[in-house]
Amino acid sequence: MRVERALCHTARVQIGAMNFPGRSVLKEIHRIKDGGFDFIDLTLEPPAAWLPDGKEVGRLIADLGLGAVGHTAYYLPIASPFKELKQQAFDLYARGLDCFADAGIELVNIHPDNRVPLHGADRMRARNADAISELCGVASARGIKLMVENIDRGFARVNDFIEIFERAPDAGFHLDVAHANLRLGLGQSNQTPEFLEAFSDRLSHVHVSDNRGGEGDLHLPLGAGNIDWRSAIRALKQAGYDGTVTLEVFSREREYLRTSKRLWQEWWNEA
């Protein structure tokens, strides 16, 4: 059984956690299961989580009764103006997709590449639209659907994604509520409602963590920053979302992750 099929839509939103890429993937899978999570958000990136044995990973995930989605390194230069560098990024991305496919994971994210110096916003969007459209085909050939994540710079507003989704109509949207809270202009608020209004029909997955606005993507426990989580949850429910939510909370003290899980469940049930 392909592990992503375990992620069916139910009345109770499913809550997952991400493996820390500095530790053994197999040990992290056990940690996430022991934490009472529904699925693992499997990130493949150095130093310790780059290209593990995908079949072994998939067997363990299935044996433990977890679901899984795939997460990729945000810093791959998929839109680089250097053809050789872009090709290398594509090759690395394809190797990651092979590993996800071996693990039976059918839903994988991709981050737009905003590191394109001396290119205006329109050219940067166009380069990303070309790259993501091509990579969607690479993923589809492996039985994988790509979803595009909003980031905090360059691809932080609804208009930044229009061309991408026109070029890649089958791509999903991966909402990161924390990213939607960063680099806001005067009078702006968290962009989650705007993203949901525009892309709820292709919403495939959600990341949540807290921050204090500004430029710091802090990955704080829920409630430790200034995000209005009850409002965000109401917006998700009004959009009809009841899928998978990853707590992207990073801390040495795991109690913060467990507390965030409890709070999310309480707020979700209250909304």
Percentage beta strand: 15-25%
The second-level CATH architecture is Alpha-Beta Barrel
Mean pLDDT: 94
Largest sheet: 8 strands, parallel
Span from first to last CA?
Answer: 34 Å
CATH superfamily: Divalent-metal-dependent TIM barrel enzymes
CATH class reads Alpha Beta
Summarize the helix and strand pattern as letters. Answer: EHEHEHEHEHEHEHEH
| Total DSSP helices | 8
Counting helices, strands and paired strands, the structural category is: alpha/beta
Q: Count the strands?
A: 8
Features:
single chain, 271 residues, alpha/beta, TIM Barrel, 8-stranded parallel β-sheet, 37% helix
Description:
There is one protein chain. The chain is of the alpha/beta class and 271 residues long. It has a single domain, classed as Alpha-Beta Barrel (TIM Barrel). It has helices at 25-34, 54-63, 83-102, 121-140, 162-167, 192-199, 229-238, 255-270; strands spanning 14-18, 39-44, 67-72, 107-110, 145-149, 172-176, 203-208, 244-247. An 8-stranded parallel sheet has the order 3-2-1-8-7-6-5-4. Helix 2 packs across helix 3. 44% of the residues are buried.
What secondary-structure arrangement, pairings included, does this model have?
Blueprint: E1 14-18, H1 25-34, E2 39-44, H2 54-63, E3 67-72, H3 83-102, E4 107-110, H4 121-140, E5 145-149, H5 162-167, E6 172-176, H6 192-199, E7 203-208, H7 229-238, E8 244-247, H8 255-270
